[in-house]
Every structure is written in C-alpha cells, then in structure tokens.
Write a structure and sequence with these properties.
The chain is of the alpha/beta class. Helices cover 35% and strands 19% of the residues. The structure holds flavin-adenine dinucleotide and ligand NA7. Ligand NA7 binds next to helix 6. One of its GO terms (molecular function) is NADP binding.
C-alpha cells in the first residue's frame, strides 16, 4: 500500500505506521473505522481517550440523560440488517440504551480490535515530505499515517465556568459530561448550575430523590414535553417496513429528525387554529417538532417566534403554582436556541424540595467551602454541586490537541478568528486531514449527517488510493466562500440574534461567529455530491506524476 511506504520513508523504527488514524470512537469514529478498514482495506487505528466506545454516550451518564431525537433516527442507517434486527422499545433512547447499541455495532463488525481506548492524542503534525501525519499519544507512543480523520465530537469538550472560589468547595463537584459512576445524590443538598438541555434533564430526574435541590438559572428556557414512552409492536413494524423511505427522506430533509417539516407560515392561520396546532405539538412531544413541524417560520420570523413563545409562557403559568417562581421561569428572549424538550421540567418547581435562584438578577458571587454565595449575601449550602454548563462546542477538542499542518502552522493560529472549514470536512493547510462534524457542518439530528460526511470522506480517500495520489488539501478561497455561505444562511435565522453555543457565545472570550451550516442536510448533501462530481472542486491534489491524466480520467 502506498501509504505505508510513504510513512516508513520519513519516520523512525519506533513509530507505528498505519494507513489511517481516526481520533474518536463515537458515532463518527466507529463508522469511519468501518469504512476505511472493511471497504477500502486500509490499515486503520482508532483512538479514544475514553475508557469505552460511544463518545457522547460514554461520557454523559448523568441521571436523565436521553437523546431528544426519536429512536428510529438516532442510529446508523448503513447497517440495513441491524435496522431490521434491532428492536426499539421506547420513543426516545436513554444514554444506557444508546451505549449498548453502539457497543453492539462495534462487536457485530469486529471493530474493537482496532480501537485503542484510554489513549488521548496530544499532538498531530503533518510531514510535508512524506505527506503523512505524525501523531503523538499519551500512551508514550508515536504513530504515523497518511490520513488523519478527526471525529472529536462537537459537544464533547466540557465547559466549567471560571467562578471565583471553585477550588474551595468541600463537597463533590461533577460536570454532567464527566459523570462518575459513584456519584451519590440521594438525600443530599444538591445545586445545579445550568438549565440547558442537560440541566433540564438532570434537574427533572434527580429532584424526586435528592434532599434539597437548588437550581441556579441564568437564562430561563423554552421547553416542551418530550413525549417519551414505550412503543408498541405495530409502531416498530411500521418503521422497519418503511426504513428505506424513511432514510431517503431524512437524508434529503433539512433537519434529519424523521418528520416532515412544516411549510405553513404561522400567521397564515387564525389565532384559534394556531393555538390548536401548538397544543397538538405539545401533546405529541418533541422540541424540534414544536419548532419545525408546527409552522415553517418560527426560527426565521419574529412574529411567528413570539406566537410560539407565548404558548410556552402560558403553559408555564398553568403548570407552575407559585407565581413568583413561574415569573422567573418564563423566558423573554427569542425562542432561537436548540429547541429543548423535557419530562416534566416546569412541574419540578412545584416540589417542596426544589428552589430556583435567578442568577441573572442575583448573580453568583463565589463558590465557598459550603456552597454558593449569591449577590444578595445568601450562602446556599450544598453537599454536591453539578455543572450542567455545557461545552466548548465544535472546535473545543481541536484546541486541546497541538495540530500542525503545512509550514508547521498550528490549528490554533489557523482558527485564531474562529474555526472554519470547507464543507465541514476539511480545512486549508491541513492536507490529508478530514473532520467528521467539523465547523460549519449541518445543524441537524447528527447521525445522518455523520454518515453523510463519513461516506464522502471515505469516497475521497478511496479515490486517492485508487489513483495513487499523495496529498489532498482544501483550497483557502473555497473555505472562505463556504464560511460566507454559512454566515449568509445563519443571518436569515433568529438563531443568529441569540447567544448560545451554536454561535460560540456561551463561553467568555470565544469568537462569536457562525459554527454551523443552517441550509439543511439535503442541501448539504447535494453540495457534497456536486463538489465530487465537479472534480472535487475546491480541493487541490498534489504529489504524483500520474495525477493529471489519471485524476481527470477518473473524475469524468
Ligand atoms: P462524540 O460522540 O462526541 O465522540 C468524540 C470522541 O472523541 C469522544 O469519545 C472523545 O473522548 C474523543 N476524543 C476527543 N478528543 C480526543 C483526543 N485528543 N484523543 C482521543 N480521543 C479524543 N445529537 C443529536 O443529533 N440528537 C440528540 O438527541 C443528541 N443528544 C445529545 C445529548 C447530550 C447530553 C449530548 C452531550 C450530545 C447530544 N447530541 C445529540 C450530540 C451528540 O454528540 C451526537 O449526536 C453524536 O453522538 C456525536 O458523535 P461523534 O462521534 O461525532 O462525537
Ligand atoms: P448549554 O445548552 O450550553 O447549557 C448550559 C447552561 O449552563 C445554560 O443554561 C447556561 O446559561 C448555563 N451556564 C453556563 N455558564 C454559566 C455560568 N457561568 N453561570 C450560570 N449559568 C451558566 O449546554 P447543555 O449541555 O445543556 O446542552 C448542550 C447540547 O448538548 C444540547 O443542545 C444537546 O444537544 C446536548 P445561559 O443559557 O448561557 O445563560
């Protein structure tokens, strides 16, 4: 194989050579390994710093952790037999269910032998002479490969806010995405900072068993019922019968959530009908369904957005008994973050053992040995403090590895003004490196997007191998243009007017810019296909004398 020869030329004997190295063993890394090893016949090693496979679902073991994509589309579509064999029992999947599914996939395809766990990658340097990557791991070894695929996760690098006194706390502190197996909450005085998707889940799940729960809320949230529950045999059979159609529709839809997105403008129906449509969505459940299946313009039109907001505020007023608590829980901002859904979040605040602190009005001053002191001078005493404070999303894990491309340029410098990519999968100056869910990829239910990206990258690598090409690199101009496209699309949405991790706005000092392509998976896939069919437009191939003739022939 050309790759191994290239690698051996430039590296010493103590370097272990592969054709491809994959970092990450979540949905992305697992499928990438499968494609490269079993379809292209490459020698591949996947690494993960985690103690098990599963990525997100290995790490996020907090009580209540649940995917809010419905079960039938929160899985791989590429294993058609497994789609028929795997029996879903609930409308949504809990963290243990997803972890068990991914472990099953790995064993079923005998992938485990090529996955090295508990191994963090600390640096990756591109060698221009050999067109190979030299990768250093925290197991003390160096590895080299022609191709480097980063499937590092876009909601993976944890965010712990730098609150004064963090190290003074004498109780236990946990981040939800690094949840320890031995965490004990029963009967304890527990504090939760953060009320995003994770916060809503953990708060609702632990409230019945803790002694007292204090919720420190900075932003009030719009959330609707998730509508989870058992599914019957007919439901499962129907899905299995229709899987081909379902996947086809998912892959050509905008959000890939497995439902038809509405094309009815909110104000095109009268107030009574609007309310009935919102009520049906509320009863049926699902955050994305509420935002995108009811009406077509909630995420783009302010009047429509306010109608959707009003309905949720009315529900809060109905559900929450104490008017002051209800007032604090009522969001007044645009409804334009990733839509949330829950299993009884607002009602949780009717419990006697739950209190709500509005830290926007009454900020956290410091963490003390005993708990949290707020600006009003109150010290909230706690045994356990939970950070449900989210992630350094999208590029967080990239900043935690010393990645160096052409001319030794570091990824940190290359992305000094925020991360960018060409088509989410590549970035200029980093040849032969491919990202799964890199910046400016589709904002969707993620497994179908992951599959789309993995398959495209695999095709490109296959093409290079077939044509004995040494090097491929995204062109800087194309990358810039893709960023402009993403920004233009995002600017048409209300999401761009709201601070959240989707725009890097959740972390002080992080560049606030577009991090996603909001044009939908269908349009994204079409663009990928067009680029491929147009001789991989926007990519430069180098490093083989036969390139021009062969490439042109192969591409046409
Ligand atoms: P991940 O699953 O994040 O895997 C990345 C892996 O890379 C991790 O295991 C990490 O340890 C490893 N890694 C990173 N850096 C290094 C390094 N330097 N060395 C070695 N290993 C490294 N998406 C949806 O579409 N629907 C949902 O309902 C949904 N719910 C979610 C709920 C939670 C609580 C969270 C946190 C995320 C959720 N997501 C959801 C997003 C979810 O992350 C994706 O759906 C999907 O699991 C991402 O898979 P991945 O393989 O790209 O990344
Ligand atoms: P999110 O959505 O980023 O939510 C984090 C929450 O933590 C949010 O309520 C933040 O308030 C809050 N936060 C963050 N820093 C602070 C400080 N310093 N003080 C008080 N409160 C703070 O992360 P999630 O894990 O819930 O969800 C991320 C995605 O992962 C989600 O969409 C799912 O797909 C899974 P803020 O809103 O910024 O005021």
């Amino acid at each position: 194989m050309t790759t191994t020869v290239l690698a051996k030329r430039s590296v010493g004997t103590d370097i272990i050579n592969y054709d491809a190295i994959v970092i990450g063993a979540g949905f992305g890394g697992i499928y990438m390994l499968k494609k490269l090893r079993d379809e292209l016949g490459l020698k591949v090693r996947a690494f993960d710093k985690a103690g098990g496979i599963g990525g997100t679902w290995f790490w996020n073991r907090y009580p209540g952790a649940l995917s809010d994509t419905e079960s039938f589309v929160y899985c791989f579509s590429w294993d058609r037999e497994l789609c028929q064999e795997w029996n879903i029992t609930t409308r949504y999947l809990t963290q243990p269910q997803i972890l068990s599914y991914l472990n099953h996939v790995v064993d079923r395809h005998d992938l485990r032998r090529d996955i090295q766990l508990e191994t963090g990658i600390t640096s990756a340097v591109f060698d221009e002479q050999s067109c190979c990557w030299l990768v250093i791991a925290d197991d003390g070894h160096q590895y080299s490969a022609k191709y480097l695929v980063t499937a590092l996760g876009l909601l993976s690098a944890t965010n712990v806010p730098k609150i004064k006194g963090l190290d003074q706390f004498e109780g236990n502190m946990y981040h939800t995405a690094k949840w320890p197996a031995d965490a004990v909450l029963e009967g304890k005085r527990v504090g939760v900072i953060g009320t995003g998707s994770t916060g809503c889940q953990v708060i609702t799940a632990i409230a019945p068993t803790v002694g007292h729960l204090t919720v420190f809320q900075r932003s009030a949230q719009y959330t609707v019922p998730v509508g989870n529950g058992p599914v019957n045999r007919e439901y499962v059979d129907e899905i299995k019968r229709n899987y081909d159609t379902i996947w086809k529709e998912v892959r050509s839809s905008r959000l890939a959530f497995g439902f038809k997105e509405s094309d009815i403008p909110t104000m095109s129906v009268d107030a009574a009908e609007r309310k009935a449509i919102f009520q049906r969505a509320w009863d049926n459940g699902g955050g994305f369904r509420y935002m995108f299946q009811t009406f077509s313009d909630i995420a783009t039109n302010e009047e429509a957005n306010i109608a959707a907001q009003d309905f949720v505020r009315e529900k809060i007023a109905e559900i929450v008994k104490d008017p002051e608590t209800a007032r604090k829980l009522m969001p007044r901002d645009l409804y334009a973050k990733r839509p949330l859904c829950d299993s009884g979040y607002y009602a949780t605040f009717n419990r006697d053992n739950v209190s709500l602190v509005d830290v926007k009005a009454n900020p956290i001053e410091e963490i003390t040995a005993k708990g949290i002191r707020t600006a009003d001078g109150v010290e909230h005493e706690l045994d356990v403090l939970i950070f449900a404070t989210g992630f350094d999303a999208v590029d967080g894990n990239y900043k935690r590895i010393d990645i160096r491309g052409r001319n030794n340029v570091s990824m940190k410098d290359h992305w000094a003004e925020g991360p960018s990519s060409y088509l989410s999968v590549a970035t200029s100056q980093f040849p032969n490196m491919f990202m799964i869910l890199g910046p400016n990829g589709p904002f969707t239910n993620l497994p179908p997007t992951i599959e789309t990206e993995v398959e495209w990258v695999s095709d490109l690598i296959g093409f290079m191998e077939e044509n004995e090409l040494a090097c491929v690199e995204a062109d800087a101009h194309s990358e810039h243009e893709w960023g402009v496209t993403c920004q233009k699309i995002a600017d048409q949405t209300l999401f761009a007017k709201t601070d959240s991790w989707i725009f890097g706005a959740n972390i002080p000092g992080k560049t606030n810019k577009v991090y996603f392509y909001m044009g939908g998976l269908g349009a994204f896939s079409e663009e990928l296909t067009a680029v491929k069919n147009d001789c991989y437009r926007g990519f430069k191939f180098t490093g083989t004398s036969v390139m021009d003739k062969h490439v042109q022939q192969a591409l046409h």
